[in-house]
Amino acid sequence: MIRLKGSSIVWIVVYVFVVSVPLVGGAINLEHGRGFWLNFSIALGFLSLAMLGAQFVIAARMQFVSGPLGMDTVLAFHKAMAYPATVFALMHPLMLLVMDAKYVQLLNVVTSPLRAKLAVLSAIALVALVLLSIYRQRLHISYKVWQLSHWLLALTVLVAAMGHVLLVNYYLKDPWQRVTWQVLTVLFVGLGLWVRVVKPLLRYRQRWHVAQITPHADGTASLELELVNKASYGAKGFQFKAGQFAWITTKNSPFSFSYNPFSISSSALVTDRIGFTIKGHEGFSAEVAHLQVGNILYVDGPYGGFHLDEEQSAPLVLIGAGVGVTPLVSMLETLADQQSARPCHLWLASKNEDSIVCQAQIQRLQKRLSLAVTHVFSSPLQAMSKPGMRLDAAFILHNLPPQAQAASYFICGPAAMMEMAAQSLLHAGIDSQSIHHERFGIV
Q: CA 298, 256, 190, 45 torsion: positive or negative?
């Protein structure tokens, strides 16, 4: 389910404008004698180059982009735009090869001119980048290796493609056009360097250390981090909104490529100590249980448009499944610290009684808040429990609170569950602006 807010529409318009500028510039010097299809293939090349360059902006984790839209939306858009950009980029040389056999000889990288070598390099790097992203899990490529290869391949694609354009010099005969593309290249590559070089340098003084780590029987571990230098984020400390997430790494260097995104599960009112509840499966997640108190970690964040709203009186309905409950717990912890009297409902789907994520935390919160918790077990262990249930449309419609239309709804868990819950709420007449969700597995 996609809901386009005003800020989303603005950014889409900005994106379309940026990627269309090369086509406008190229049309100024359009040579009709070369034929429609040749000009069309070149236009596709310019369009794909602009789109690939814009990918650096989208993936640069810039707050002014992710703040209004939400990081899950930004990265989903980044992934979606990669496909048309790749198709346009490959159609450009394929159309040339079909139109004239003389272009085939340019594929011989031994004898071809540099401009052709760069084009081949860019195309190969682009195909490799896309295939590794699609088949990463099937090929059992670690997240860390994929991150490094993804960035290096993307940089290769953009630099090689830009070099090809400048050496061909078609549509770039005027000085202003060449300067424009050179500036865009510096901008796009600079954003990549900002993410991988400048930001890590800034994070070095904002180090965190492991203050406490608690393994749980459900396969998760609670990780509490404390700032080494409490003044490193300024007088207000580490500011985030309840429900947001951050990228963290266990490595001793802020330049590590092994950053992984996790939702913060602690109160947003505590600014020098943050908590995460992480389920081990691969990479950093599996390493959490082996951390020791005092280990240094680096945090990049906060991010995400999924966070507690400003309304302090309307009922709050939180719908979660498994580890998806962590940002919801952060919202509840924040409300508890605010001594809020806001009516809260938590519907949590788990396999059984022993697999409830953040169970102890939720039990403590029930004593501090007006919080009604409903557990849904697909395979309950206790005979007194109801037979296997599902958090489905029937459950949602049956459990809507009396003031359902005035409530705010936050959903986090597997994509299929979130889509089902959102659609069920819409069918029940809930305003779409009152329904919020956070997608896991976005990278």
A: negative
